[in-house]
């Protein structure tokens, strides 16, 4: 099983497609170092000014946190040059306290859980 299988069916928060179908994530965008228990996912938002880039990154993080053994450290990043506020999004997605605070927001968690729901149209 590849690591893409864990995240390929995440729904885009704005479009009726998965992140894989939109090419937001691909097999090549995932790096795994099993010895160091490290996974790095680089995603490409559909547009440079995507207002939900942080939400997409949080969906990826939550799905991997729920799917992988706790020994794994997960880094989520926007692909270089693909988002207007790339540095800010990357900082939000990889700061433990910011992520924890975001995941305490019930409205945000509702949106994330909706994106992580299995789809019936396959």
Give descriptors for this structure.
122 residues; 3-stranded mixed β-sheet; single chain; MIP18 family-like domain-containing protein; 13% strand; FSCA_dom_sf; alpha+beta; MIP18; 5 helices; 39% helix
Compact description:
The chain has 122 residues and is an alpha+beta fold.
Low-confidence stretches: none
Shape: globular
Q: How many β-strand runs?
A: 3
Structural class of the secondary elements? Answer: alpha+beta
GO cellular component, one term: intracellular protein-containing complex
Pfam families: FeS_assembly_P
Family: Belongs to the MIP18 family.
Organism: Musa troglodytarum (fe'i banana)
What secondary-structure arrangement, pairings included, does this model have?
Layout: H1 4-7, E1 30-33, E2 38-43, H2 53-67, E3 73-78, H3 86-94, H4 96-103, H5 106-116
Parallel strand pairs: 2-3
Antiparallel strand pairs: 1-2
Overview of the molecule:
It holds the Pfam family FeS_assembly_P. One of its GO terms (biological process) is chromosome segregation. This is MIP18 family-like domain-containing protein. One of its GO terms (cellular component) is iron-sulfur cluster assembly complex. By secondary structure, this protein is α+β, with helices and mostly antiparallel strands. 39% of the residues lie in helices and 13% in strands. The protein has helices at residues 4-7, 53-67, 86-94, 96-103, 106-116, and strands at 30-33, 38-43, 73-78. The chain has a three-stranded mixed beta sheet. Strand 2, helix 2 and strand 3 form a beta-alpha-beta unit. The relative contact order is 0.18. The mean pLDDT is 93.
């Amino acid at each position: 099983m590849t690591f893409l299988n864990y995240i390929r069916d995440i729904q885009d928060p704005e479009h009726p497609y998965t992140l894989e179908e939109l090419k937001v994530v691909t097999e090549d965008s995932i790096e795994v170092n099993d010895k160091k228990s490290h996974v790095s996912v680089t995603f490409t938002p559909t547009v440079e000014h995507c207002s939900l880039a942080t939400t997409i990154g949080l969906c990826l993080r939550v799905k991997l946190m729920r799917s992988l053994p706790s020994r794994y450290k997960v880094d989520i990043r926007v692909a270089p040059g693909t988002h207007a506020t790339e540095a800010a999004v990357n900082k939000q997605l990889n700061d433990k306290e910011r992520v924890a605070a975001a995941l305490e927001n019930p409205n945000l968690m509702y949106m994330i859980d909706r994106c992580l729901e299995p789809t019936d149209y396959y």
